[in-house]
Every structure is written in structure tokens, then in C-alpha cells.
Write a structure and sequence with these properties.
By secondary structure, the chain is α+β, with helices and mostly antiparallel strands. The chain has helices at residues 27-30, 37-60, 70-82, 97-106, 113-126, 147-154, 166-169, 173-180, 230-265, 363-374, 381-389, 395-408, 444-452; strands at 8-9, 13-15, 18-19, 24-25, 130-135, 140-145, 184-187, 199-207, 214-223, 272-276, 281-285, 302-306, 310-317, 320-325, 333-339, 347-352, 355-360, 413-414, 419-420, 425-429.
């Protein structure tokens, strides 16, 4: 990141938390290995001063020679649209005890709390910081770490049941990671609310490997003097470790379901399959196996139409569903509603003569469906690669993702070029503010739609 020999760089980062557009010094190089504590403190104070100047200039609407990092600048813009006051308190209405306990017991994060405590909680305690775990709404479910920092966290309402989304508390690692969908570090005056300027935090999202759904956020917070650029990498690594443990637990659960399903299917004639509650296949008879059957967000016993199978009869089993396929071909889809109005939860609802069906979308699939909805005439793999990555050579990635979309939403898409079928009516529900369109996305086409005002077929 820095030059090999000197201490001067141009158009590089002052440190991980603050990009510099003018000549600056690298703190790691400007302080020799035997630098005194006074020198280190001077570097830290200089860094914080630059951040405060950038923050103050942004609030005044003035240009600053040291620009905020893109993830911070975009967050500040969102927070301003929310109407938050930089001088406000960070207090929020806490969840009731029974609601807090319900959220704790109903999230898969509870299964990996021992891993999080062992991998991050002890480190946070030793480094005079705390570990915080939130749900997908930014509500604090658990926290642990240094006792003194825990008491100090109480003064800013960083406690169990508190809300730490951007629309409540402004730019902070928890809320900004929720919105951006990636690991984020926020230091000192990068926080929008002044009360948090003497804090530093790093957070990373945790996703459910079964369906890609966001489970919550892992965060490490502490006084600004405890800042270290490696904290972000540590938090991100622990979040991936938690996802890996969840994945192993899921594979073990599918194996248990398979042991129950195999003898059952031996006694069933015709097409049938057993899947877990997320649609992952445990056993099948009378038809080719698939990795996963997309299930609606709400599935009950009885007749149900599934795009990839057609009309089925669903019967509950311990840990999953028995699906008996009644129709030989999938039902005909006549309408799709792409709901992008909720920034953190894109959803697709498909409907046909046999009924309707809804499913949450991954961020990438939401991007692809939005682009195809805007370009009803169709897009080639190379054009979509430019739309997503500004690189026409990344067609392999595009084709692989579209293959997954076509398997999950059977009967909706054609190829050569990729497009919605002519008979399918498409409606796109957009957020009230175009700048909130797919906030996780860095695709050039989506960035352009935010600036130019998002649009879509039948959009609202």
C-alpha cells in the first residue's frame, strides 16, 4: 500500500480509516521501531485531528483536502437524508426482556456464540475493547469484554437491546456494515454523531450459509486509543469462522434427515423428494437429483406450486419436508414482482395460473434481475459483465450466476440474449429515494441508476 523506500505517498490512505488525496505520511513508517510513546501519541492525535476537520467540513458542505473514505462518505450522505442531528444522543428504546430473549433463541447466531466468545471476546477483553453481536436489524443481542469498557459503553447505549442501525445512530461500524453488506471499520470522527468521536469500532456481517440471509453483525468496539488497522481483518476472519461452523452444522442436519428419508422414499411410487427447511436435498426418488429446491418464504402442508417442480403436495417431516410431485411440468409463470423497496431485503414474487410464490434474493441475483428488468430487450453476457464489473471479460461469472437464477426461477428467463420471457409481466418496486437502490451494490449500472434516478418496468 505504501512506497517501498520513503515515508511520503500521494493519493493514498493516511491509515486504513481515512484516505488522503494530498501528500501525507505513513504513521507506520514515520515512527521508527523504537519510537517513543510520545511519538506514537502524536501520530494518533494528528490522525484524529484530520478526521475531525474532514467531518466538520462535510457538515458545513465544504470541500476538505482530506476526503472521507467512500464507504464513510456514502454513509454520511445516507444519514443526512435520514435527518439525523450530529449533536444528538445515541440513546434508543431498548427491547423488552422477553423480546430480547426471543431474538436470542430464534437466531442461528446463538449456536456459534461459544466460537465468537473464544475467537473474539477474549481478544477484545485483553485489548481493552468489547465484542458486540447484533441481529439483522442492528439490535444488540450480546456483548462481552473488558468490564471498564462495558461500563463506558453504557453511557452511549451500546448495550443489550439497543438499536445501532444507521437510521438510528448514524454512521457506525454496526449500522454501516448492515447497509453496505461488508466488513467496515469506523474510527473517531468518521462516526456521524459527535458523541462517538472518542470510539473506534470494526464490524463484519454474518450470513446464513443455508440461504445467504443476513443473520447479524459481529463488532469490536473500544476507546479511540485502542485503534489498530488489523482489528478489521480479525473481525472479518471470525465472522467467516462462524459461517463455516454454521455450514458444518447444516451438513450434519441434512445427513440426519437423509437417514430418516431414505427408507421412507423406498415405499413411495412416482416422483418425490425430501428437503430440509431451506430446500436443500436430502433424498429423491423417481426424478433427477438437484442440489436445492427453492421454497417460498412461508410453506405449509398441502398443495403448493413450486416454479422448479410444478404442483406438489407438501408434508412436514422432522427437520424438513416431503414433496410429492403431481404435475409433470412446471406451471406457467405470468408475472414477477421484484421488490427492491427494502434496501436490505430484496425479494421476488412470481405468480401464475397455479398460484403465487415469494422468495428472498441474494444481492447478486437482485442486481441481475434489476438489470434484466430495465433492459427487457435482453443483455448479452458481456454486456452484463460491463454492467456489473465494468469488465466485458468476466462472462464466466455472469453465466454461472444466471444459471443459478434460471434454476431458482424456472420459466422466467430466456438466453441468447439473457432476458425475461415476453409473456412475463415484470414490475419493479423501488425505494423512495433512488440513492437507496441496492445499497450493497458497487455495480457501475446500479451506481448510475442511483445518480440518474432509478427506474424499472411498472416501477413505483
Amino acid at each position: 500500500m505504501w512506497g517501498d523506500g520513503g515515508v511520503t505517498v500521494r493519493k493514498r490512505y493516511w491509515f486504513r480509516g481515512c484516505p488522503v488525496k494530498i501528500t501525507s505520511s505513513n504513521p507506520a513508517r514515520s515512527a521508527p521501531p523504537d519510537a517513543s510513546e510520545k511519538t506514537v501519541r502524536h501520530v494518533q492525535e494528528t490522525t484524529v485531528r484530520h478526521l475531525q476537520e474532514t467531518w466538520a467540513a462535510a457538515l458545513r458542505g465544504e470541500h476538505s483536502p482530506i476526503a472521507p473514505r467512500p464507504v464513510i462518505g456514502q454513509s454520511w450522505q445516507r444519514v443526512k437524508r435520514f435527518g439525523l442531528d450530529p449533536e444528538q444522543s445515541t440513546d434508543s428504546v431498548l427491547l423488552q426482556t422477553d423480546e430480547l430473549e426471543h431474538r436470542r433463541t430464534s437466531t442461528a447466531l446463538a449456536d456459534v456464540m461459544p466460537t465468537l466468545s473464544g475467537g473474539l471476546g477474549a481478544v477484545a477483553d485483553a485489548s481493552l475493547q468489547i465484542m458486540v453481536v447484533t441481529d439483522a436489524e442492528g439490535r444488540v443481542l450480546w456483548r462481552e469484554g473488558n468490564p471498564g469498557v462495558l461500563r463506558r459503553a453504557d453511557t452511549i447505549c451500546l448495550e443489550e437491546g439497543a438499536a445501532w442501525s444507521e437510521d438510528t445512530t448514524g454512521t457506525n461500524a454496526i449500522g454501516t456494515a448492515l447497509t453496505a453488506g461488508t466488513a467496515v471499520q469506523v474510527h473517531s470522527a468518521e462516526h456521524f454523531v459527535r458523541t462517538l468521536h472518542d470510539w473506534t469500532c470494526a464490524a463484519a456481517p454474518v450470513h446464513d450459509p443455508r440461504d445467504g440471509r443476513l443473520l447479524g453483525i459481529i463488532d469490536v468496539s473500544g476507546p479511540d486509543s485502542t485503534f489498530h488497522p488489523a482489528t478489521l481483518a480479525l473481525v472479518d476472519s471470525v465472522s467467516r469462522l462462524a459461517e463455516s461452523e454454521l455450514r458444518n452444522r447444516h451438513l450434519a442436519a441434512v445427513e440426519r434427515l437423509r437417514a430418516v428419508a431414505a427408507p421412507l422414499l423406498c415405499r413411495i411410487g412416482g416422483k418425490a423428494l425430501v428437503v430440509d427447511t431451506h430446500g436443500w436435498l436430502a433424498a429423491v426418488t423417481g426424478m433427477p437429483p438437484v442440489d436445492r429446491v427453492p421454497l417460498p418464504n412461508s410453506l405449509g402442508a398441502g398443495h403448493v406450486w413450486l416454479p422448479s417442480l410444478g404442483m406438489c403436495v407438501a408434508e412436514p417431516m422432522p427437520g424438513g419436508w416431503l414433496l410429492r410431485v403431481e404435475a409433470d411440468t412446471p406451471g406457467c409463470v405470468s408475472r414477477l414482482v421484484l421488490d427492491l423497496s427494502e434496501p436490505r431485503r430484496p425479494c421476488a414474487t412470481v405468480a401464475g395460473a397455479a398460484g403465487s410464490w415469494a422468495q428472498d434474493l441474494s444481492p447478486r441475483h437482485a442486481e441481475l434481475l434489476y438489470l434484466l428488468a430495465v433492459h427487457r430487450e435482453g443483455r448479452s453476457a458481456a454486456q452484463l459483465a460491463v454492467d456489473l464489473f465494468d469488465d466485458p471479460t468476466r462472462t464466466v461469472t455472469v453465466r454461472a450466476e444466471l444459471s443459478r437464477v434460471r434454476r431458482r426461477l424456472t420459466g422466467l428467463l430466456d438466453h441468447r440474449p439473457y432476458r425475461f420471457r415476453e409473456e412475463v409481466e415484470v414490475e419493479v418496486l423501488l425505494p423512495d429515494d433512488p440513492l437507496d437502490l441496492l445499497p450493497h451494490s458497487t455495480a457501475p449500472a446500479v451506481l448510475g441508476a442511483r445518480v440518474g434516478g432509478a427506474s424499472g418496468p411498472g416501477g413505483s
